[in-house]
Design a protein that fits this description.
155 residues; 7 strands; 5 helices
Length: 155
């Protein structure tokens, strides 16, 4: 990804234009140094946790000669800890539901035709439900908004 600053406005390009200021076609095939001579520099996206952090507006980092972003905490001031927990638990249960759906047909087969559910499937479903219960308790035990937002809900 490259960016250029024109009249104080930074424009980010996921793909360089094919033509630029007199270079008709194959502009993107120029060397990195030639592209820099036209004012296009790399865009560096810092690592950040998308659950609790966000990126600032892009800016020119004069020391590193790249365009980049600052990492900032998300504004959670209008959301209570209880609301965040409720949202995370709702998402957790939705993920659990999706996991259980993979084997729901065994349940329907049992209901409709009285065909036994294999022990491995029953154990797998019990493990999913137990994991959901454990994770829900862990979420409820969290005390900071950042910890709640960054909690791993992987089942």
């Amino acid at each position: 990804m490259k960016a250029i600053e024109i009249n104080g406005i930074i424009k980010v390009y996921s793909k360089l234009p094919n033509s630029w200021k007199g270079v008709m076609g194959n502009f993107s095939k120029l060397s990195n140094e030639e592209i820099k001579a036209y004012g296009f520099y790399d865009v560096v996206i810092p690592d950040y946790n998308k659950a609790s952090e966000t990126l600032s507006a892009v800016f020119w980092d004069v020391n590193n000669k790249v365009f980049t972003y600052n990492v900032e905490d998300k504004d959670l001031s209008n959301t209570t800890i209880e609301e965040l927990k409720e949202g995370q638990i709702k998402d957790l249960k939705a993920r659990g539901h999706l996991e259980l759906q993979k084997t729901d047909w065994y349940i329907w087969r049992k209901i409709e035709k009285n065909i036994n559910i294999p022990n491995t499937i029953s154990s797998e479903r019990d493990a999913i439900k137990e994991k959901i219960n454990t994770k829900e308790s862990e979420i409820n035990a969290l005390t900071t908004k950042k910890d709640i937002m960054e909690y791993d809900k992987t089942i």
